[in-house]
Amino acid sequence: MLDTTLNSNVLPKAIEWNEGELFLLDQTQLPLVTVMEKQESVEQVWESIQLLKVRGAPAIGVAGAYGLCVAMRKSTEKPLGEFMEEMDRQAAYLDSSRPTAVNLGWGLRRMVKMAKAANTQNSAELYAALVTEAVAIHEEDKLLCRGMGQNGAPLIREGMGILTHCNAGSLATSELGTATAPMYVAHDKGTKFRVYADETRPLLQGARLTSWELQKSGIDVTLITDNMAAHIMSQGLIDMVIVGTDRVAANGDVANKIGTMGVAILAKHFGIPFYVACPSSTIDFETPSGAGIPIEEREAHEVTEFGARRTAPIGVKVRNPAFDVTPNEMVTGLITEKKIVTAPYTENLKALFG
User: Fold this and answer.
1) Which of 95, 141, 226, 246 is labelled catalytic?
2) Measured CA distances, 232 to 147, 198, 261 (Å)
3) Residue 220 among the catalytic residues
4) What is the CATH number of the domain that holds 192?
């Protein structure tokens, strides 16, 4: 039996719903400062998602669901029809905060669909139903993480070296993470292995978040810069790559933090298995391939500054795509809550989840 408290005792939760109030861990201040911010308005929730105070596809799906509750809690005295209209507007507003991760839109659509099908007599009852649904989404995400952990842990053998990119850990979800879930489960069972965490430029999620949470959980972790991955692989130190994803297309193409495709290309060159951990909520059957996944382009200052110091010429042109798409032929397997899915992905994903 998996000890589900294995990392909750040492790590703060990314999201908390407490007596009708939403609290989000401000991950932009990690690893030096730990601050849980009370979300006073829907605008604050939108900003928290957009500014990456809360981040990771599963986590922003949960945050969006609770954010809709924050948006609607002052509308419980309105007629039911007006409440519904306002709910549609606020769901669309929240969904506009970040475009690439599919979980945000998925969670909001689920909330709205439930509300429109609910047999409630007034807006107060409907608001209560929204809260119940958001809590259910939150709890289900924990189960998805545990399932990925149980299914992926057997891949991790004694003495292995594992490379991961960005943060697909407990900070990005409701509990154990996606890519890190197999690591936490294997570690809990006593398997000894080491993790190499890419720093993940430009926002250093690997350095600030992944290395921090793995270290606090007692896992052997070594931080490397992104451009060290090829060298570390060439030395025979990496036996497997596990990353997360923000969206999986119907054909198994995966969108993840910028730099992931480069890691996949390196892994293929060196003959290293490349696994992607993803809950079913991240699979987008409406998008046939990775070519249809919208890629978020972020502000230039994230690239031109490092540690609050400008490191590029003033006026230089900048590209800052936050994600790239790894083609399915480079993916050894998708670690889901049900099983590890392998090629052919179009057929196998549809058979399992479609």
Assistant:
1) 246
2) 30, 11, 17
3) no
4) 3.40.50.10470
